[in-house]
Amino acid sequence: MIYINSELNTHSLKRLLTNTLPDQIIIEDVHKILKDNDPVEECLIEIDDTLISVPLQAPIHIITRAFYDETLRVRFGTYRVQVAIGDVVTDQHSEAEATYCFATLYYDDHKNLITIDFHSAMR
After folding, report:
1. Which of 20, 40, 111, 119 has the smallest C-beta neighbourhood within 10 Å, fewest atoms?
2. Calpha distance 48→90 (Å, rounded)
3. Positions of the chain with pLDDT under 70
4. What does the DSSP 8-state code read for residue 73?
5. Distance between CA 18 and CA 49 in Å, rounded?
């Protein structure tokens, strides 16, 4: 059981969220999905009706990690994590771009991966 005192701050919340869904778990989940698609050295991912080739050893960078307390019974992921697959660069307008793509991972209350959504732009 976690007791939250009145002095909980942003740093504490970030640490709690990171401890709940550690980087290593997220990265392993992404690699598992990529390997399930194509167990060789590269994986084909469809994004916007286009197939892109992603090396299985591409770096995974965690961009955002979030907890959702939804008041409606939507229940599509209590936790959501956005990652960049490949290196991340920012353009002249400070928008992030990934070498290959971005992905959003959806986790349930028990931190089980529900699904992953690949996309070309950061959301």
Report:
1. 40
2. 21
3. 1-8, 37-39, 73-75
4. T
5. 33
